[in-house]
Structures
1.
Amino acid sequence: MPESFFYFIQQLLNGLTVGSTYALIAIGYTMVYGIIGMINFAHGEIYMIGSYIAFAVLAALAMMGIDSVSLMLISAFVISIIITSTYGFAVERVAYRPLRNSNRLIALISAIGMSIFLQNYVRLAQGSRDIAMPSMISGGWTFGPEDGFHATVSYMQLIIFVVTFISMTALTLFISRSKMGRACRACAEDLGMTGLLGINTNQIISITFVIGAALAAVAGVLLGMYYGVINPYIGFMAGLKAFTAAVLGGIGSIPGAVLGGLILGVTEAFTAGYFSSEYKDVVAFSLLVLILLFRPTGILGKPEVEKV
Amino acid sequence: MSECLLEVSDLSMRFGGLLAVDQMALKIRPGEIVSMIGPNGAGKTTVFNCLTGFYRASGGSIQYKNQAIEKMPGYKIARLGVVRTFQNVRLFKGMTVLENLLVAQHRHLKTGLLAGLFKTPGYRKSEEKAMERAEFWLEKVGLTEFANREAGNLAYGQQRRLGIARCMVTQPELLMLDEPAAGLNPNETAELDKLISDLRRDHGVTVLLIEHDMKLVMDISDRIYVINQGRPLASGVPEDIRNNPEVIKAYLGEG
């Protein structure tokens, strides 16, 4: 097979890797939008906090002299998920719930304020310089011709695929099978009616924020280790990308967020691979503009229904 | 009248400069079927919205089982056993018929996340109970064969019946129906008449009804409240209301 084929495969793999983490973050946007109809612009910052907590855990374990890779990875995931979820919960309680019944624009501004606050809070506490995140896992699996270009799947990429897959399966089961998931879907359809059936909708909204933050934390740990560098500003771009992915797939739809994330990741990777990596953000956000112009409801989104 | 299930006095609801409901009073005893009637825009649905915590009343008191509920959030009122239907039904249209009935029993499934994950015996038992109750009501409203259909795809009359079943699985004591017969044909209305009577007789619910179909109202109501322009106009047994000149004037205009 020609080299160009392996080059193509390599770009596709890179795209799917980044895309699946976009999808994890995008689910947080889409679930919150689905239930309370607001864009949580602080969600990118939640992802960034997830990365920082993972770094702190890895550093602390390394200082204690623990060098078991699996133990370090698992503790990074678990602790980051727990603490980041707490942030997600707190953000909703402090910045959104008091504004629930006010104009949508007010909640949006509060979200932007929260985003700026979190970014600067991490900057003050941790400094604004890049931090090198230990990659933990090196090596990979190479295929293709011995000489010339060959494609590589790094073990880190494999871990990203596996962890993303597990997270999404767990989410799907939760949403479709559990009684809480059922209540989440009911809230997304008609928040007022769900309350009148005796369901505490504030609790369901909190759960939604916690799930979104937990998935963002998973993405934070994975991407932090994949890129190897974190700083207080990574949340901004990741948040915008994930938001684009959510809109692309149809905001409010969970499968849409996954699809949008993958399409966006692959598009970026191909742009970087075949044109220039300088252009990948241009293409990503042009995609957002095009979608908003020609299909504002996204790929899997349903047309907005007037709520009474 | 200490045995009142629901006692509303001097209820008012103001939207900006508009006084939509004023000096409204209601008394409902357990086991009664009480109707609220009045011309369009009289404020009947607004009263419903105040009673269920959907709106917060501007003034007055609402006592349910001698407990003040006028400041409670809607979900707490629902937990006390007060549930309602809407004129526009408001089913969860993207969910199946069965899921609509299961989600309404959410709070009866007293189980945590972990119990659900590991399907503990307690969880299974409460799930089974919820399923049984759902199936019972599906049968009662004649929707058993549609259990796995998306609720939004049901015919209009079926959607209305599902709306009532969804209320009933929450095991309410006070069922509030907002124009349940709207858009139904005479046959379906007759079935509804029978269903509402059954609900009281077999399941002990008290019913508060808003309805324009006078035949239905006169047939099943124990007492009727007439509202006009946000204020109580008359109340009494159907016979009195039928012959009340004030009521006739409000409905037909000043001749």
Note: Residues 3-294 of chain A form a domain with the ABC transporter involved in vitamin B12 uptake, BtuC fold (CATH 1.10.3470).
2.
Amino acid sequence: METLGVLLTFPMNPYLEEELDRRCNLFRLWESPPESRCEFLRAHAGSIRAVVGNATCGADADTIDALPKLEIISSFSVGLDKIDLEKCRQRGIRVTNTPDVLTEDTADLAIGLAIAVLRRIPQADRYVRSGSWKSKGDYKLTNKFSGKTVGIIGLGRIGMAVAKRAEAFDCPISYHSRSEKPGTNYKYYSTVVDLAANCQVLVVACALTPETRHIVNREVMDALGPKGVLINIGRGPHVDEAELVKALVEGRLGGAGIDVFEQEPHVPEELFDLENVVLLPHVGSGTVETRKAMADLVLGNLEAHCTNKPLLTPVI
Amino acid sequence: MRHHQPFLSNVPLLPSSLILRPSPNPRSPPRRITLARASMDGNSELPLVLLVRPLFPAFENSLRQHFRFLQPWESPLPTHEFLSANASSIRALLCSGPAPVDDATLACLPGLQCVVATSAGVDHIDMDECRRRGIQVTNAGDVFSDDAADYAVGFLIDVLRRISASDRFVRSGLWPIRGDYPLGFKLGGKRVGIIGLGSIGSRVAKRLEAFGCTILYHSRTTRPSLAYKYFSNVCDLAAESDVLIVTCALTRETHHLINKDVLLALGKDGVVVNIGRGALIDEKELVKCLREGVIGGAGLDVFENEPNVPKELFAMDNVVLSHHRAIFTPESFSGLLQLVIDNLKAFFDGRPLLSPVSA
């Protein structure tokens, strides 16, 4: 793999960067200023045969066009919405992702967010740290999680893992996906609005595609209602963020736990003062253990490509 | 009334002349100045219950349909004098929250037969003295258990995944400035040592199994019907655990159960979650261990000297703090209200109590 020219788009993981530097011919895209990136790509276009990107910075059509020798894109993410897959198909560029290894972390975070929002844990933490317990002695009630009906959009790997965890809290599970899944006892709804109207906690766990963009819109939020809680561990554009802010500010939606935003790292400031939201900086797979496993999978895919072995987790 | 029958014959109610009752004519003054004020609006035939401090208003309104209350804080008399003066009519005491029921209080109440506590833990009640006097004590049973277990799991995910800390990071506008938040730690595969596998501990275990955790436990006695590995010694449990969740009752034996040795055995990546009582952990040692990196993090809903929280914790991003409210949900409260009513009715009817605290 020593001769493989790899373009790393973003400093996503120190271990991955170290290993790529040690085992390949590494090019760091972020080290050149944004205005000179085209030149940077042109200068190294003859060497770059692989791109490693992630959910923040993948490979769009322009990047792919600038790299005529590109053979493989190995994404440090499960979602591939930042990669122009159509272009890859046309050019015969292989694409891999990191499925499975981040399923558990993402599902754990969905449950953690649901409990945090309903039980107001970060709010309690703020309250204690500000010294208010001693001065005010607030004992406002919070909302129970066990037994709440959990509706899941997208019953794939992550959605199933969320369901399994929520079941241990005696939560009835319902879901929406493109088609009804055989082999589960979970209640299926063919529309997201119906799902939202019939659940108390709505979890977005599907892939971002043109069809699922803004799948949680105003109508869905209103169906979920003033006691409902929205959890988004998918991608920011799954939710119409402007409508979400309005629904929360106007009290039409009960609460939200949000790990992903439409314009990351920018978060609508109106949310900062709300007590019924928990805001996370896209950390769904953000654990030491999982990022190492994801890095190993990226490296394994590149290694397999170089040695003409079957790719470990091919998408294309 | 039927439920007065077998008991009240030998323990008379407060003499009716001493009870303030609404007069038939609401404008006319009460007939007698009273020594004790039992329920103003109550029916004098309802059973009488001593309170030690005011109840939540919603609670009180519901309970007043079934019981009359003696409220010592409304009397000009010092509490113990008030209790002694009314002792002959007091058979049941409702202890709300952590208000202490000590031996001095019990000594004023020779006729007391039943203490109904609204908490799961009864460390604020002198259990030895109750036993000696043959007083039955009830607690919140398992009405809080689901909420407490949810909170323990929520705390653990929060500590490992830095939910509260990264929410703080986002709200203070740091994401665009500092970039990615530091990585947290995976819950799946963690070995979780549960201390006290009672109704809360076993619910924590059930939940965490679904996250792929391995469950270990310590309790007074082993539970052979369970597949979880038992440790008779807390240090041994800590040495084999990545996480300790403290859910046991606070007693003389469990005071400072989590001490320096246990924390050292847990180790530098270890996490402690306490939803039991503050004094189960040696708080000074815990703060020191967190400061020095002897353990990795902590989720604390309870503290040794509430509402005082060691200030040093306020600056730590690897701890999550809350103000003793793991069970504060409407569901817990309505369950508790029903249980309190049922326990008191059972007591006055001479039936077995619903949630007696075993000796």
Note: Chain A has a mean pLDDT of 96.
